[in-house]
Amino acid sequence: YRTGVEVEGSIRLGSRISWNANLTLSQNKIRNFNEVMYDYGTNFDEYTEVVTTYTNSEISFSPNVIAGSGLFYVPVKNLEVGLLTKYVGRQYLDNTSNINRSIDSYFTNDLRLTYSVKPSFMRELSLSLLVNNVFNTLYSSNGYTYGYLGGATEYRQNFYYPQAGRNYLLMLALRF
After folding, report:
1. CA 79 to CA 114: how far, in whole Å?
2. CA-closest candidate to residue 140, choices 121, 166, 160, 165
């Protein structure tokens, strides 16, 4: 089951500054989950299934907290500067709620500059520069895990997808 609350709001802090934010708080649970692992034996010459039951475990890739914010400033006509922030809480790579098989929470910031004009021959022409991960935060947003048994020894392997450091995107938008 999934249960929680999502809140979103925005406010004008002045004629040139606005702020919007969102927050999701949730519980994402599996009441009864059976993990099946394969035991290949001490010499890796046999094959049996080992089932472990978990109750009220976290659903994989379902953080309990997600938050976002956008702070926008218009210093001069047609130019907007925006600071976009995002927080994603801990996520588990499988449904066992084991912290050793999880993705750490992360917090990122992006900076966006947008210049827009409304020429007579079209509705709008915009040029935006987006600096993603402006503080060059090291984080992973996804991954997977794999495990098996070799007799009495448990083997677990985690794999993570690291995200790009600071990177840039230039966008031209033409609206007719």
Report:
1. 6
2. 160
In tens, the pLDDT along 23-63 reads 999 999 999 999 999 999 988 888 899 999 999 999 999 99
Residue of 111, 116, 165 whose CA lies nearest to 137: 165
Amino acid 79 reads L
Residue with tokens 């709008």: 124
**What does the alpha-carbon distance between residue 29 and residue 24 come to, in Å, rounded to a whole number?**
16
Token pair belonging to 122: 């079209």
Contact 72, 80 (CB under 8 A): yes
The whole-model pTM stands at 0.88
Distance between CA 103 and CA 163 in Å, rounded?
Answer: 12
Amino acid at 159: F
